[in-house]
Amino acid sequence: MESLTRGGTRWKRFAVVMVPSVAATAAIGVALSQGALAASFSVSGQQFKVSTDRLDGEGFVQYGAVDAQKNGKNVPVAVSAFSSAKIHNLCQSVVVPVPVFGDVSMKLQAGGGDPVEAKNLYIDLDQLNADATFNNINIGVAAGSSSKGPGIKKGDKADPGSFAQEADTATLTHVHQRAWATTAGTFKLSGLKMSVAKGKSECY
Questions:
Q1: Over the stretch 98-126, which tens digit does the pLDDT of each residue have?
Q2: What is the rounded distance in angstroms from the CA atom of residue 134 to the CA atom of residue 147?
Q3: What is the pTM assigned to this prediction?
């Protein structure tokens, strides 16, 4: 009887922490899979992993900024922004530690067939591994004066005069990155799949 009580307690705590976020993510996921929708992916105070086989971007700009988390922590990030992008085999995963229950992983996957399509895409990251090709790159422009990308994201804590780089197009392959937020004006995720599992199940 004691073990059943413990099991019940763990699942209640799990439900309190995870069910609201899973329900919200599922609702967003259905909308995204059926058409284009503005979207933002972030987990307050936590990094998440993103991987993709290939990203073809138009209008690229990258600049430094500071992400302010709800827990009061300020995180330095490099913001990679694209006016538009097509992404093949996109995966985003986050591991959430749940008291008593243990780690719970949430994973979103899309673009296995038709690519994911995004407009005004911003990725706030602190680690990136990829093979990259840039067309007509300009290194050392001021972040606020770039004419090739979507510009500094509204609300970003970034110095408009700080160092930045820009390019007409950018192609990234074999991408592994650690991010704090992904935001897009429109995001269409073809073939969207979402899974929630106990333990660690990450994109890479």
A1: 888 889 888 889 999 999 999 999 999 99
A2: 16
A3: 0.80
